[in-house]
Design a protein that fits this description.
InterPro entries: HATPase_C_sf, Sensor_HK_TwoCompSys, Sig_transdc_His_kin_sub3_dim/P. The chain is α+β, with helices and mostly antiparallel strands. The protein contains eleven helices and five strands. The chain folds into two domains: 169 residues; 138 residues, 2-Layer Sandwich (Heat Shock Protein 90), CATH 3.30.565. A five-stranded mixed sheet has the order 1-2-3-5-4, with helices on one face. A hairpin with a 5-residue loop joins strand 4 and strand 5. Helix 4 packs parallel to helix 6 and helix 5 packs parallel to helix 7. The longest helix is centred in the middle third of the chain and has 73 residues.
Length: 408
């Protein structure tokens, strides 16, 4: 409905639906053979009727297939109304049915703003011409006038339904396109977060294994084994992300963060609150886990830091609702002035916004860089929010200059 025919079968179906209503012209056609009018009048009537039908089909079919410009609509409608008036005036009341076809064409091809006045105008002309025939005055209002008005407005309603259907179809296509774009963005964020972290760790371990050879082959072999483990886990994570079933966990990401920071020879001061086994809503834990992964990846790749601090604290939002704040700070070189968010931070900001959270970035205390991810916790989960940040002991990894390639 509301679409131009795309196959011959559809074209034939639409054409038959329009042509079947031509049966109502049986009265004028029969009148051409039974009327006592002179033969010349009947021949002119047949020519006029043929011209009327040709104009009617040309207007309706062109509107159905290609659409008709307003400049072409009004002359054709005026010609239809004129032919209906002249033929009825000279050939008798049976020809009043032409006004019904004119009303139908008006309702089909004109926009609502014009059709709502044109249909009543056609009906008024019909009633005026019908007064010429005393033999039908008793019933022609019900037989011709009301059908012309009712069917005309019915066609206006049908055209409105067709336009609404087209708009809904276009809206559905737009929703599908936006959904596809959202899915592509989700995949881009997931793959960036997954592969960025894993590939950074593989690069660091490869450089470390290269420095250990040939003096320390055993240690180099251990690093190569770690590379194999990380690459296999990255492959599993990518497959899970593609299927949409991956749910990052804080405990898993914390373990990966420790391994990456140790490899980069960055000391870790991790909040004990991150290691507590407490229930968190899936959306909250996923958002915090992604934030931890992205923040630690940036520390390893860009900071050139000697120490990294991880904190998880509870706070109250502006509306009084509980929230969790994950803070990752380092003592590295910090971000360059005027530097915009990269793909990682931009994707993380979008991911947090989906769960109602926000991302805060800025300089650390004294030096370095600080990233804070704030995620609201639903009211029924408020008891899971930790009371405050822990001051747990720093990770045992020694502080040392960062590995080559880890500097910003």
């Amino acid at each position: 409905m509301g679409q131009a025919p795309r196959t011959w079968r559809q074209a034939v179906s639409k054409a038959l639906w329009i042509c079947v209503w031509m049966l109502y012209l049986a009265g004028p056609v029969a009148d051409l053979f039974t009327s006592p009018a002179p033969p010349t009048t009947r021949v002119l009537g047949a020519v006029g009727l043929a011209g009327y039908v040709v104009l009617y089909f040309a207007l309706v079919f062109r509107h159905m297939w290609r659409g008709v410009t307003p400049r072409a609509i009004y002359p054709v409608l005026a010609a239809l109304l004129t032919l209906a008036t002249v033929l009825t005036w000279h050939l008798g009341p049976n020809w009043l049915v032409l006004f019904i076809f004119t009303s139908v064409a008006t309702g089909v091809v004109l926009p609502w703003e014009h059709a709502r006045w044109s249909v009543p105008f056609v009906t008024v002309v019909l009633l005026t011409v019908g007064l010429r025939f005393p033999e039908v005055r008793a019933y022609y209002l019900l037989a011709y006038g009301l059908p012309a008005l009712g069917i005309g407005y019915t066609m206006i309603g049908v055209q409105y339904l067709i336009r609404t259907t087209k708009e809904l179809r276009a809206a559905r296509e737009e929703v599908a396109r936006l959904a596809a774009n959202d899915e592509r963005l989700r995949m881009a964020r997931d793959l960036h977060d997954l592969l960025g972290h894993s590939l950074s760790l593989i690069t660091l371990k490869s450089e470390l294994a290269g420095r250990m050879l040939p003096a320390r082959p055993a240690d180099a072999a251990a690093q190569v084994a770690d590379i194999e483990r990380v690459s296999r886990q990255a492959l599993v994570d990518v497959r899970e992300a593609v299927t949409g079933y991956r749910r990052p966990r804080l405990a898993v990401e914390l373990a990966g963060a420790r391994a990456a920071l140790r490899t980069a020879r960055i000391a870790v001061d991790a909040d004990p609150a991150l290691e507590r086994d407490r229930p968190l809503p899936e959306a909250v834990e996923s958002a915090l886990a992604w934030a931890l992964r992205e923040a630690v990846t940036n520390v390893v790749r860009h900071s050139g830091a000697r120490r990294c601090t991880l904190r998880l604290t509870g706070e109250t939002g502006p509306d009084g609702s509980p929230a969790l704040r994950l803070t990752v700070a380092d003592d590295g070189v910090g971000a360059a002035r005027g530097t915009a968010d990269g793909n990682g931070l931009g994707g993380l900001r979008e991911r947090l916004a989906l769960s109602g959270g926000r991302l805060e970035t800025g300089p650390g205390e004294g030096r370095g860089f600080r990233l804070a991810a704030v995620v609201p916790v639903p009211a029924e989960e408020g008891e899971a929010v930790p009371d405050g940040g822990g001051d747990g002991p720093a990770d045992a990894a020694p502080a040392a200059p960062s590995a080559p390639g880890a500097a910003r």
